[in-house]
Write a structure and sequence with these properties.
single chain; alpha+beta; Arc Repressor Mutant, subunit A; D-Maltodextrin-Binding Protein, domain 2; six-stranded mixed β-sheet; four-stranded antiparallel β-sheet; 9 helices; 16 strands
């Protein structure tokens, strides 16, 4: 059906119900002449007279009454479908696929998941933890969470956390035979655990800072892993010194299974940002997620 065909049929149904071109035109937001023109065009296309007209009344002909009876359920179903589609676009429901590194999953999403799902029970979340930088559009994700310096420039970004700090930690047993390092240069004399990026195979660089001073430490790791949880567990078991995010190791520090090493030194890291494409349209579920995460995190500053 062409757009013009539907418009003519809509005018026909309005005139048939209102029994007046003027009232039908008002209902549709048209001029009476436009409504009359649409009916004449429909009659010419169907080669049948649809209305008997007098100066005081308008009534369907027998052919018009048959057409009205056939069209009424179809037009009602069509209007219901259109209205339902519009309402669906206003209600947050459906699936959201979010890509993020494991650390973001632990620090950002774990504290928020239950509250979000209680507030939006019709939204289904798919959270993929992947430390490799993904092209979220090509991979079919709605959004991603990454450190601010790793967010692509063509994306809209919403800050979720303040900048992070990576700190050197170790199990107390690591210093039974030798004292803790007093300077970053002495880290190389101890067994260390390092992280390797799965994507490019690069090892994590230990660049430590203190009061404006920065130094990059060369370590030869005795253990290399590509999983943050395994790195933390190995450090707690005494496998060596590790560079881990401060909030991630806070419980172990409280338990005493880890201690800070070189407590004046740390590695600053850009805070996590939620980011998504600049495509000009945001689904209700995506809008709900963005607004929720912005308010749920302490440093919710939007950057567009």
């Amino acid at each position: 059906m062409k757009g013009a065909d539907y418009a003519e049929l809509a005018v026909f149904m309005a005139v048939a119900k209102e029994r007046s071109f003027r009232r039908a035109a008002q209902r549709l937001g048209l001029s009476p002449s436009a409504a009359s023109h649409a009916i004449r065009a429909l009659e010419q296309r169907l080669h049948v007279r649809l209305f008997n007209r007098t100066t005081r009344s308008v009534a369907p002909t027998e052919a018009g009454a048959r057409l009205m009876a056939q069209l009424e359920p179809a037009m009602a179903a069509l209007e219901s479908a259109v209205q339902g589609a519009g309402e669906a676009q206003l209600t947050p429901r459906g699936t959201l696929r979010i890509n993020m590194p494991r650390l973001a999953g632990h620090l950002v999403m774990v504290p928020a998941i239950e509250r979000f799902m209680v507030r939006y029970p019709d939204i289904r979340l798919e959270l993929l933890l992947d430390d490799n930088l993904q092209d979220i559009v090509a991979a079919g994700f709605d959004a991603g969470i990454r450190a601010g310096d790793r967010v692509p420039r063509d994306m809209i970004a919403v800050r979720l956390t303040a900048d992070l700090q990576m700190v050197v930690v170790a199990a107390p047993g690591c210093f039974q035979t030798q004292p803790p390092p007093a300077t970053p240069d002495e880290l190389g004399r101890h067994r260390c655990i390092n992280y390797r990026w799965s994507g490019n195979g690069a090892q994590y660089r230990w660049r430590l800072s203190r009061a404006g001073e920065s130094v990059e430490v060369d370590i030869v790791p005795s253990l290399t892993v590509n999983d943050i949880d395994l790195l933390l567990a190995a450090a707690e078991q005494g496998a060596g010194l590790a560079l881990l995010e401060s909030q991630c190791v806070a419980p172990a520090l409280r338990r005493g299974t880890l201690v800070r090493v070189l407590p004046q030194w740390c590695k600053p890291v850009a805070g996590f940002h939620l980011y998504y494409p600049r495509n000009g349209f945001m689904t209700p579920q995506m809008r709900a997620f963005v607004d929720f995460m912005r308010l749920d995190t302490a440093a919710g500053t939007r950057q567009e």
